[in-house]
Structures are given as C-alpha cells and as structure tokens.
Amino acid sequence: MLKAASGTFAHVLKRSLIPTARVNAVGVVRNSHGGPVESDEEFDSRYEAFFNRKDIDGWEIRKGMNDLCGMDLVPDPRIIKAAMHACRRVNDYALAIRFIEACKDKCGPKVNEIYPYIIQEIKPTLVELGIETPEELGYDKPELALKNVYEM
C-alpha cells in the first residue's frame, strides 16, 4: 500500500515540476477600428452643435472640453466660440477662462503662431460676452513671484 501511494505521489510530483510542451494553434489577429472616418468639417460641426445645445449643463460642458483637451489637436475657433457661449449660458466665467488657457496649452511649441490667431478669431465673441483673456487678467504672469536678486 505504501509503495502504491509513494508511486502515485512521485508521479504527481513529476508532472507538476516538469513542464509539458503544448502547441497552441491560435493565431494573433489584430482587428482595426473599421468605423467611419470623420472629416475635419464634420468633427468641428459635431462639437459646435454639442456646445450650442440649449439644454446643456455645466457637467456636459466640462465633459466636452475635457474630451477636446484629451485629443491631439487644437480646437477650431468656431468650437471655442460655441464653448464660450455655452459657458455664458450656464454663467460659468471661470470655466471659460480655463478653457482658453487649455487651448493655449494645446498649441504647444507653436504657441506664438497659433494662439494669437485663435485670440484674433474669438475676440469679438469674448467682447460680446464680457469675457477677458487670461493675459488681460494677468494670469500669464506669476502673481507672487519674487524679483531676481541679480537684476535688482
């Protein structure tokens, strides 16, 4: 009896320690998106219509802006105008300023080329809505920065 039990134990131990080679016949197939491709004009129109909805609330505005900021693009000025109007409808001045700052940040290393164009295009809307740019508010400079001791 002991010999049979020890033989079974040795067999189980041997099978657990020695890996068995298995051949899987599963090939890796990578499926592409395959969905419809949206043109730039359709993309801009979709987001403009999203921000132009009359029943939009603050959470949806933030969601739309967050989605735009997560993409590898700078929003078109007409999308920014629609977003400014949406911010005014929900009376969220701070959100409008933060979105302009986010658009400036999205310009990346070409901020000196793209951002003045955006401000030029949306300036009439900003004046109409009573929204100032971050530069007019002084947000482009640190408030409590100390002067450089070597420049005093």
Automatic annotation (TrEMBL):
Q: What is this protein called?
A: Cytochrome c oxidase subunit 5A, mitochondrial
Q: Tell me the route in metabolism or biology where this protein functions.
A: Energy metabolism; oxidative phosphorylation
Q: Where in the cell is it found?
A: Mitochondrion inner membrane
Function, as annotated: Component of the cytochrome c oxidase, the last enzyme in the mitochondrial electron transport chain which drives oxidative phosphorylation. The respiratory chain contains 3 multisubunit complexes succinate dehydrogenase (complex II, CII), ubiquinol-cytochrome c oxidoreductase (cytochrome b-c1 complex, complex III, CIII) and cytochrome c oxidase (complex IV, CIV), that cooperate to transfer electrons derived from NADH and succinate to molecular oxygen, creating an electrochemical gradient over the inner membrane that drives transmembrane transport and the ATP synthase.
Q: Which domain of life is it from?
A: Eukaryota
Identify the species of origin.
Answer: Plutella xylostella (Diamondback moth)
Quaternary assembly: Component of the cytochrome c oxidase (complex IV, CIV), a multisubunit enzyme composed of a catalytic core of 3 subunits and several supernumerary subunits. The complex exists as a monomer or a dimer and forms supercomplexes (SCs) in the inner mitochondrial membrane with ubiquinol-cytochrome c oxidoreductase (cytochrome b-c1 complex, complex III, CIII).
Q: Which UniProt keywords apply?
A: Heme, Iron, Membrane, Metal-binding, Mitochondrion, Mitochondrion inner membrane, Transit peptide
Q: Which family does it belong to?
A: Belongs to the cytochrome c oxidase subunit 5A family.
Please report the record's description of how this protein sits within the membrane. Answer: Peripheral membrane protein
